[in-house]
Amino acid sequence: MAGINTNNRVKTAVFKFTCCAGCQFALLYFFDQLPETLELLDFVYFKMARRKELDEPYDLALIEGGISTPEHIEQLKRIRKQAKILVAFGACAAHGGVPSIKDWQRELAVEARVYPDPLLISSIKVSPVDEFVKVDHYLRGCPIDEVEFMELIRSIAAGKKPYIREHPVCVECKLRNNICILLMREGVQESMCLGPVTRAGCRAVCTSNMRACFGCRGPMSNPNIPEMVRTFKGKGFSPKDIEMRFTEYSGLSNEFSEGARAYYGRKAPYYRRKAA
Amino acid sequence: MKSKFEAFKLKNLSILIEAVSQKYRTYGPVAKDGEHAFEIIEPESKLYLGCAVTMLPAKYILQPVWQDLFSFKLGDGFQIEEPRLDEKLAIFGISPCDVNALLALDQVFGGKFVDPYYWKRRENTLIIAANCTEVASESFCTSWNTGPELHSNYDLLLTELSDGYLLEIGSLEGENVIVGLNLIKATQADLNEKMARLDSARTNAKKKLPVAPDDLHQFFRERFDHPAWVPNSDVCFSCGNCTIVCPTCYCFDIRDEIMPSRSTGVRRSEWDSCQLLEFAEVGFGANFRRLRIDRFKHRTIHKLSWMKQQYGLTGCVGCGRCVRWCPSWPERRGRLTSLADPVEIIADLMEPLDKYGTAEISRGEAA
Predict the structure, then answer these.
(1) Stretch B230-237: mean pLDDT
(2) Contact: B235, A221; criterion CB under 8 Å
(3) B327–A39: do the CB atoms touch at under 8 Å?
(4) Which chain B residues are Cβ-neighbours of A234 within 8 angstroms?
């Protein structure tokens, strides 16, 4: 990994943008669970954990949350200049997450619902971090997964490429000997499981507990979105249900926004195309 | 009966399970969330010995989903530590199709190149098979002759009768397990009942491969560019479910996990699937099977034909797990059918070419 001296601890800063701070909170929890891995990091800026800000440069920036004001963009670009490695930390930073639901509605209507005088605030549509800066690694999920976090930090410290899963949740789910909750054909309940198109790495935590995958980790490599829509449609779910499921956590990804638009055929309010 | 050993009659299974689980770590098909799964069993466990199309096949006992191959340490030189694999295992109630699948895996892991991890476990495994007195609607084992009856390659063989079980012995090790159990000898009437029950299972199994197994090689050769591959692979999720539940799939990935100290670590294997985009990716991002249609075709033809060329044993035993667990159910011939179903795929490929009209034979969508 360019520029990181692997013999020392990695100087790390944790930044929060628009999100619930749950991933940062998960990081605090890891201090108990993964003390050895956290030992590899030296936090110079971590608002939730320490009051004092150290005036020290850092190599690794963990970015939590989506970008939703013009000031955020400026700050993010400053961080990018400083950091050698920038990690999009959690679903909001990687795909907009829950706050991005507002991108599917009119900006002013959303603001008016929350603020008495919307003119006093300056908010823009929520964007993932990679809309404005280059991201070196993604830690997806709402919240981030313990094992994946461990793999990433250890790999950064060892200067090797981390193993981040790109295959669907189905693989991890089946390996755990779970029954398929999408397939309950004669069964008790039909569920809108996004497992066949969502990226794994969560150790199938929801489906192992008989809850449908809601796609917080964003699309897998080469997902078959039209088939997912057809499957939901065949199970009798309404267009609104399908749109909501696809936009719940990762609607800003090209693939999931395609799923959300499948019924209405309308142009997504937010439609991003990655450079080929 | 070919066996030189005797046959016995069992009133209930618990004494046999107890005798086996005293000496072996015993797995058997039990109910789980409305389906069946191979799990470690106790004498009081309620086993399901019908046509138990369990979720994960029995192969996961011999080739675990995740497996620590060895742990390593860097210090004065390089030290490795391997796990011990001498535990005695027993698989209770394994279906004939799954036993045949294990024979195919034996060729893969114990043929020309021996995988010591698989083979050590395999040698320590007692096979207590159970004939299927019914055949599940998604299974087509009769086409491959891998079921519903097992003729050889078992230590003990059970067949459900109207008033108990028929127990046949297939090996010395199997005989040793039941020594001292004080079992009743089976009568000719019991043997006749077994034959009658298996015959009725065979006749009731409606699902058949439309092509004779020996002709499949030629069949796929002729239809490698058939247009029916396109609509089929278009509705495939490439999610890997069909391959993970398949009892003859054997692909795995190996990775090193480095501990924070950076001087110790574990080398680990995990099941992999040819249906995943990353599977055929090599250095610099090149990928031999970037297109979904290529992956779909690969699975189908490898199972049904190439594996026979490679190892001499069929890669499909007709258990129907892929049919059961495929999340995609497109409409074919006016009804919903599982996309992964080999019988349906073959039927599609038998359609005349002009059925697809002038539609251009595309290569499927790009990854």
Answers:
(1) 94
(2) no
(3) no
(4) 329, 336
pLDDT band of residue A189 (cuts 50, 70, 90) is low
Q: Is the pLDDT of residue A270 over 70?
A: no
pLDDT digits (tens, 9 = 90+) for B72-105: 998 888 899 999 888 999 999 999 999 999 999 9
Taking an 8 Å cut-off on Cβ atoms, the answer to whether A166 and B35 are in contact is no
State the nearest Cα–Cα gap between B260 and chain A, in angstroms. 6
Taking only the tens place, the pLDDT of each residue in B105-138 is 999 999 889 999 999 999 999 999 999 999 999 9
Considering Cα of A265, then B332, then B300, then A196, what sign does the dihedral take?
Answer: positive
Show the tokens assigned to A25.
Answer: 């909170």
Three-class secondary structure of residue B169 per DSSP: strand
Beta strands across the sheet bearing B25-32: B35-40, B25-32, B89-94, B125-130, B156-161, B164-169, B7-10, B184-185
- Selecting from B32, B244, B327 the residue whose C-beta is nearest the C-beta of A231 gives B327
The SS3 of residue A130 is helix
Contact A177 B55 (CB under 8 A): yes
Q: Report the residue from A37, A39, A182 with minimal CB separation from B327.
A: A182
CB B301 within 8 A of CB B220: yes
Q: Establish whether this prediction's ipTM goes over 0.95.
A: no
Q: Are residues A177 and B37, on separate chains, in Cβ contact within 8 Å? A: yes
Pairing assessment for the beta strands B264-271 and B25-32 based on DSSP bridges = unpaired
Instruction: Extract the tokens encoding B142.
Output: 């009769």
How far is it, in rounded angstroms, from Cα B364 to Cα B367?
Answer: 9
The conformation of residue B303, written as its DSSP 8-state character, comes to I
Task: Using an 8 Å CB-CB cutoff, list chain B residues near A180.
Answer: 241, 325, 327
Chain A neighbours among B 317-356 (CB < 8 Å)?
Answer: 325, 327-330, 336
CA distance B162 to B185: 16
With an 8 Å Cβ cutoff, is B260 touching chain A? yes
> Residue A226 burial by CB count (10 A; 0-12/13-18/19+): exposed, middle or buried?
middle
Closest chain B residue to A37, measured at CA? B260
Buried-exposed string A236-272: b where 16+ CB fall within 10 A, e elsewhere: ebeeeebbbbbbbbbbbbebbbbbbbbeeeeebebee
B235 touches chain A (CB under 8 A): yes
Residues of B in contact with A224 (CB under 8 A): 235-238, 292
Name the residue with higher pLDDT: B362 or A198. A198
Indicate if the pLDDT at residue B367 is higher than 50.
Answer: no
Copy the structure tokens of residue B61.
């006992």
Share of chain A above pLDDT 70, in %: 90
In sequence order, the 6+-apart residues with CB closer than 8 A to the CB of B215 are none
Please report the DSSP string for A144-170 in residue order. T-HHHHHHHHHHHHHTS------SBHH
Q: Dihedral through CA B322, CA B324, CA B328, CA B334, nearest 10?
A: 110
This prediction has a pTM of: 0.90
Band of the pLDDT at B261, cuts 50, 70, 90? confident
B119 or A103: which leads in pLDDT: B119
Minimum Cα–Cα distance from B254: chain A residue: A163
> Which residues of chain A make contact with B284, given a CB cutoff of 8 A?
none
Portion of chain A with pLDDT greater than 90, in percent: 60
- Please, which residues have CB within 8 angstroms of residue B360's CB and are 6 or more apart in sequence? none
Do B261 and A36 count as a contact with CB atoms less than 8 A apart?
Answer: yes
Residues of B in contact with A231 (CB under 8 A): 327-329
